[in-house]
Amino acid sequence: MNQFGVLFRKEWRENLRNYKIFWIPIVFILFGILEPVTNYFLPQLLDSLGNLPEGAVIELPVPQPEEILQAVLGQYQLIGMAILILAYMGSIAGERKSGTATLLYVRPLSFRDYFLSKWLMAGITGVMSVWLGLLAAYYYIFLLFEQVEIISFLQFAGTYSVWILLVITIVLAASAAMPNAGMAAAVSLALVFFMQIADSLLGAYWTFSPMKIPAYAAQWLYGKPDMSDYWWTLALAIAFILALLFFGIWMAKRKASTAKV
Amino acid sequence: MTILEVRNLTKRYGEQVAVKDLSFALEEGTATALIGPNGAGKTTTLSMLAGLLRATSGSINWHRESGVGFLPQHPHFFPWMTALEFMEMAAKLSGVHSKNALSQSKKTLEFVGLGSVQNKKTGTFSGGMKQRLGLAQAIVHEPKLLLLDEPVSALDPTGRREIMDLLKSLQPHTTVLYSTHILNDAEQMTDQLLFMQHGKLVEHGSLGEVKERYAEPRIRIRFQTARQAAAFAGQVSWPADLDGSAVELAIEEEGDTAMKKVLAKLADTSEGVIGVEQKTATLEEIFIKVAGGK
Amino acid sequence: MDQSTIVLLLLPILFIQLGLMIFALVDLIKNPNPNGPKWMWAVLIVVVNIIGPILYLVIGRRNY
After folding, report:
1. ipTM entry
2. How far apart (Å, rounded) are the C-alpha atoms in residues B37 and B196?
3. Cα–Cα 20 to 30 A to B18, which of B49, B99, B209, C5?
């Protein structure tokens, strides 16, 4: 019996019919394009807005293409993460709350397949959105500024994809553990943002933590991160993802009886 | 053959006891009605039997491999899914081979009368259609045991009759346990009655047994006028109650004896009699008695 | 870079923003049961650029 296939098909249909698989990538693409475009027009914009005395010249340093790509990442770290968390906060908690889960749970359901089918669907959407967005940014930076070396870009985007998977795993595990979508989102946002802040404040004391992935991803643009720290960070992130997957599956099963009958 | 046996089933929520020491058995191929007032613990009991809730203590013995179907009181479907898509998913998750899942789903939708709307999204379905789809998803894998929580209470009389007829046609291949507070329905299809109140089983047995237990040996005689009724009541030596133009006699006798005596008496003074009947208690009267008495 | 190329580069931004807005509005009109009053979402979608439609899609939409 292949429950994973059946359940993944359901998730696929759902994401198709609530259009998540279309609009989430489009929003990431939009933010990917906006960053290089604003940078390109910033001098002209300041020129037309400011009442500068005659003869004053604004000298803005032309941003490096790598810096713009890093700024796109900054946008994703705020708005992008919030969108992914809000889009998938109800994956499990919402099904339990609305009562739609009951007709699944009453069957001999594999909670592992149930959880993993949702995780894979959200993961595909998240990683695809980030790649499309970053590629759009890459193309615009190439048109308006200079080309970023393609290998550097691939290392940058590839490293960042691990971070996206971690965030997706956090939100799905939270959705399995929390009684409703709102609390799942609150817990995920707190984990993703506050732990990053904590890492940036105290992170000088250690060199590897999953929270440093976005920073290490950006370092690929300028050279390469310390490889030992880098691999340890990735290994730790993957360990986190695996632990959260087990936790999420366990919680999905444990909390099944809280589904509305 | 016993298909399901429940012993001392108990469910507590903190201090509150939802179900207490419930014991009963279901015989294969029978229909059992679980009745009782709101809050009696019917839904909690069915949820535990369906495996959605874990019992605090007690045991439920049955052959899980023979399959169970469950219809919650208010089934919720994914509104963006069509009826057929949902059925196919339900069938596969219940273990129907993927080769047969689609045909089995179509067949079941036809059976419950949703064949013509199988490609409509369930979000557009009316309450009655959802109830039918709920029944369909519960029986698509041909389970031996069917658990239904208030399967007809949300429907109009026509819809109720149709669903009850569908349920009857599932017998005797399927053992049915259903809760209801519509006693008329319970009377239509039941081999066994389980009467719950405050989480406990307060009465059970076949419909006939329960009725006999609560039957009062009363004979009702209707007259054309109230005056004739009163006159007759004055003549008899049995305890008699006047009820408009009718008299009810309470005679403690075995079997037909009471009726024979009444008919003999009426042969002498039968002025204005238009009907004589042996009264049997309706389930509703029993319900009120049980619910009020204990 | 000449003017027409720049306009071509800016067009996708305009398309996406307008597209998101129109898509969210059409979905709102068809939505039988949004999470909150319809008029409020309509105002938000039209007035708050980008974020309005996104907020509607993640919070206001609910599956239907």
Report:
1. 0.90
2. 8
3. B209
CA pair distance B217, B254, nearest whole angstrom: 9
- Residue keyed to tokens 């319970």: B186
SS (H, E, C) chain A: CCHHHHHHHHHHHHHHHCCHHHHHHHHHHHHHHHHHHHHHHHHHHHHHHCCCCCCCCCCCCCCCHHHHHHHHHHHHHHHHHHHHHHHHCCCCHHHHHHCCCHHHHCCCCCHHHHHHHHHHHHHHHHHHHHHHHHHHHHHHHHHHCCCCCHHHHHHHHHHHHHHHHHHHHHHHHHHHHCCCHHHHHHHHHHHHHHHHHHHHHHHHHCCCCHHHHHHHHHHHHHCCCCHHHHHHHHHHHHHHHHHHHHHHHHHHHHHHHHCCC
A242/chain B closest Cα distance in angstroms:
26
- Name residue, tokens 């509150």: B16
Burial class of residue A220 (count of CB atoms within 10 Å of its CB; 0-12, 13-18, 19+) = buried
**B190, two tokens:** 């039941």
Q: Which chains would you list as touching B if contact means 3+ CB atom pairs under 8 Å?
A: A, C
Residues 150-209 of chain B whose Cβ lies under 8 A from any Cβ of chain C: none
Domain map of chain B by residue range? 2-212, 216-281
Which residue is closest to A87 within chain C, CA to CA? C58
Per-residue pLDDT of chain B (294 residues; tens, 9 = 90+): 888 999 999 999 988 999 999 999 999 899 999 998 888 999 999 999 999 999 999 999 887 666 899 999 999 999 999 999 999 999 999 999 999 999 999 999 999 999 999 999 999 999 999 999 999 999 999 999 999 999 988 888 888 888 889 999 998 889 999 998 888 888 888 899 999 999 999 989 888 888 878 777 788 888 888 888 888 888 888 888 888 888 888 877 766 787 888 888 888 776 788 888 887 777 777 888 877 764
The set of long-range contacts for A141-144, using a CB threshold of 8 Å and a minimum separation of 24, is A141/A36, A141/A65, A141/A68, A141/A69, A142/A65, A143/C9, A144/A36, A144/A37, A144/A39, A144/A40, A144/C1, A144/C9
Tokens representing residue C59 in the block: 């919070």
Integer Cα distance of B20 and B219 in angstroms: 39
Residues of chain B with Cβ-Cβ distance to C63 below 8 Å are 78-80
The token pair at A2 is 């292949």
Please list every residue in chain C whose beta carbon sits closer than 8 Å to the beta carbon of residue A14. 63
In CATH, what number does B2-212 get?
3.40.50.300
Domain boundaries, chain C: 3-60
User: Which H or E element spans position B218?
Assistant: strand B218-223
Quick one: fold of B216-281? Alpha-Beta Plaits (3.30.70)
